[in-house]
Specification:
Blueprint (H helix, E strand, L loop, with lengths): L8 H23 L6 H8 L3 H7 L3 H28 L5 H13 L2 H13 L3 H27 L4 H24 L6 H23 L1
């Protein structure tokens, strides 16, 4: 049996960083920023404090890297939905709403919201805002483009995409402040009906 190839130093470094980042994501989702302790991350990840200090000297360095990991993952998921929806234009709205729900009604959004509120105008808050611009705004723009490519006007594409994200984001905040979550599916259904009318009206004007 041939000997297993040894990992390069670069590969080992990357694995160590990945363990720390994934551990940080898991801990932030469980305890949010207020309960986040770097020592807990090293324990969960099986990485020494020395290695952690080498890669992420400051707590917020690790937190920002963890959030970028989350944003990259959610962006990739959204772009996959968009690519699939291109082949089925009649399912565009359904795919858009599914993407909105996946992000805004899950831990990824609450994690980013927590960090933005904690960071405020401090460097952490500014970094979170920049990541949101880089990853989340680009997703919204990609949805606008696919609606336009499917024959909808730029104004209608913007309205449907912007309002879809706004509606689900607002329901996500409602979920935080009150226990009445049973109405969320109904409210999303009502918005889908309104958005469908907007899209049908737009295509009707072009006939």
């Amino acid at each position: 049996m041939p000997a297993r190839a040894r990992k390069t130093q670069a590969q080992r470094r990357e694995e160590t960083r990945a363990k720390l980042v994934q551990g940080a994501v898991e801990l932030l989702k469980k305890k949010r920023y207020a309960g986040f302790r770097v020592a807990d991350v090293t324990t969960m990840s099986g990485v020494s404090r020395g290695a952690q200090s080498h890669y992420f000297p400051m707590k917020d360095d690790l937190v920002i890297e963890a959030l970028e990991f989350v944003f990259k993952e959610t962006q990739a998921n959204a772009l996959a939905k968009i690519a699939k929806a291109k082949a089925h234009p009649d399912q565009l709205l359904q795919a858009l709403i599914a993407d909105s729900k996946d992000f805004f009604l899950g831990d990824n959004f609450y994690l980013s919201l927590d960090l933005m509120m904690v960071g405020g105008d401090e460097p952490l808050g500014q970094a979170v805002q920049q990541l949101a611009q880089n990853y989340r705004v680009s997703v919204e723009n990609a949805w606008r483009e696919v609606f336009k490519e499917s024959g909808y006007s730029a104004s209608t594409a913007d309205e449907v995409v912007s309002l879809s994200f706004c509606v689900v984001r607002g329901l996500s905040i409602r979920k935080i402040i009150g226990p009445d979550t049973a109405r969320i599916p109904h409210m999303i259904k009502l918005w889908k009906q309104q958005a469908t009318l907007l899209l049908e009206s737009d295509l009707g004007r072009k006939k």
